[in-house]
Amino acid sequence: MAIPVFEVEFDKNGNVVDPQQVTKALDGIAAAQAGDLLVLSHGWNNDMADARQLYAAILARIEAQLPAAGQGRTFAALEIFWPSKKFTDTELIPGGAAALGDGDLDPAVLISRLEALKSEPQRLGVEEVVPERAAALTQAQALVPNLDNDLDAQRQFVEILRAQLPKDDADPDDGSDGFFEKDPVELLQSLSEPVPPPPLPAGGGGAAMLEGGGEGGLEGGAAGLGDFFSGAKAGAGRLLNFFTYYQMKKRAGLVGRTGAASVLRQIHGRLPQLKLHLIGHSFGGRLVTAAADALGPAVPVTTLTLLQAAYSHNGLGQKYDGTHDGFFRQIVTQKKIAGPLLITHTKNDKAVGIAYPLASRLSGDVASALGDANDPYGGMGRNGAQKTPEVDAAVAFLDRVGTQYRFKVGKIYNLNADEFIKGHSDIAKDEVAFALLTAVALT
Q: How far apart are CA 317 and CA 315, in angstroms?
């Protein structure tokens, strides 16, 4: 059976681009007499075609598994498009091979990356230069040649970058508070040491690392090599990584809690019996979590599925550091998800850990475990939810089609997907679809 699909696009401020899309979705879902709505959000992505391709692949697997796990249910799908931006290999590993003979990062690489940051997506695939940011980043470009030996240049460079980002999404769970609070010179120096690669998956992981095929090429060979540059310019390159991460983190949260939540309220108002199943990939995981958080009990979310989510593994945690709850802890404590919450995670995912070794450096922890479950700043798509008592360890693996999952309502399931998900975007799998539909069937 073909699931009817509807689209809604948001701009960078979380506004619906075309209100007729919402009207069409409301009318179409009602006409389909759907009982369950799959709400999908892509992650970092550069254009509509890539996002549509990802959605089509996921829905094809779900449709294929309907006879096994979706009998008796009537589905529709709402696809969210939001202005995200791909990370590239040069952002994951500053400079690629463009190092000077002494191991420093080529200043031309930094200048080029600053030039690229002068524009940002207003809509998915539509970038515009932001004049105020462009002027500030031109000043930062002029400081690049002096970064290694001039403390004033280092201070100004960091302060210019900080001024381009609001502080309201800074949080201890991913170290982003340190980005704003630490002394600028100390901050840059803390990022100046090389970042070795995370451990390889069992068996070497060579094929998974070299196949590519992920968003932005992040599972490609370069992504597994680590970042061995040192010095202030290398630290500045890593600071740009964190800048891009933070910008997308904020954007995903904004679109989720404003635009997406508003549309879902309208859908619930029109079709109050419709069950909502939120599914987010990568930064889209943060978007749908933020939407569920904003909706609250007034608009119940039936299930939440996070596919290689790009936010902190502390995000749902309880006093994960002895003091702080995760940013989205209230999702759990206020029971904002009625049914199971599924989280796929795998050590094969190199991309989801972009920000987390950097966060450890921002905090001054240079001996962190580089993104695994022992790293205080690991990623959800790498490790699942950590320090979260509601995780039910009775189901700990993504398993084969036909598995009798023992999911329970109100519980969280960290599904180790090492066997099936071989890279950050390798999520259109029958096994993923079957587990998702099993959770849906429980409701």
A: 6
